[in-house]
Amino acid sequence: MASIDPLATWQLVAIAAAGGFVWNMRDLWEDGKKSADKRTSKDLRYWTFFVFWPCAGAALAWLYILDGSTLRPLLAFSVGLSISSTLQTMVAKAPPVPPPNKEEKQE
Known about the structure:
The termini are far apart. The protein is flat. The protein has helices spanning 6-32, 44-66, 73-81, 83-93, 102-106. The chain is mostly helical. The chain has one domain. This is Holin. Keywords: Membrane, Transmembrane, Transmembrane helix.
């Protein structure tokens, strides 16, 4: 495996995080166009995800780099921009976990 350039890695991770941040800004822009009664409430859950999406985009870019994939700046930005769709698709494709069998617990 080829050595990983730390400066390039952090630059690409930051670019991916910027993509996630731009997605958040787009959401805020679209929400601002709605009437006051239809806007999303900016509660703790909202701000948690506001911080989460750029971090998740950065983490996914970092995983790509660790995997040895060639990641260019535009692709890193796109990874951050699309992280919410990527994770939603992965979760939707995961097989459901069956509930634990009650009889097994009692034994």
